[in-house]
Amino acid sequence: MEALEAIHTRRSIRQYKDTPLSEETIRELLDAAMSAPTAGGIQPWRFVVITERAVLDAIPDIHPYAAMIRQAPLAILVCGDESSENYGAFWVQDCSAAMQNILLAARALGLASLWCGVHGRPEREKAFTELFGLPEKVRPLGLAIVGHSDTPFTRKECYDESKVHHNRW
């Protein structure tokens, strides 16, 4: 699949089949994530790969918009290590790029995905930190839910000229 096709047909999918994904597929998703740009080349991302059904099923108890995870075979918690002295503040941008790469790689592989935000909601950050035993300087950004789905991938026109300014506001 061409890169632009993956970008234009990617959708937030909320219905999944519980068909397991291969280790090779999971590795491809993580490899795509780790190919994202990063400030200073520090690669602050850390990933928690979640395939255990009991853990997946517990997530909606701490995230009000993650009920669809009960159908999905995989979630990847994208986290950022903010301990870098010079570039620690950029972890959100770096890890957001990694998250987007996961979603686009999933689409390119014919898989459905959804980004559930965690960062910016202190109660969610605390709950995910506790559930997954994250170290002190590692912060959860969001959860990529991935799996097979029968939901069609169609292109939706998103371009809006009113949001574009040239040379100045």
From TrEMBL:
InterPro entries attached to this UniProt entry: Nitroreductase, Nitroreductase-like
PANTHER family per record: NAD(P)H NITROREDUCTASE YDGI-RELATED, NADH DEHYDROGENASE_NAD(P)H NITROREDUCTASE XCC3605-RELATED
Organism: Candidatus Bilophila faecipullorum
Keywords: Oxidoreductase
Domain Nitroreductase, first and last residues per copy: 7-148
Family, similarity comment: Belongs to the nitroreductase family.
CDD domains: nitroreductase (cd02150)
Any one Gene Ontology molecular-function term assigned to this protein's record: oxidoreductase activity
Name of the molecule in the record: Nitroreductase family protein
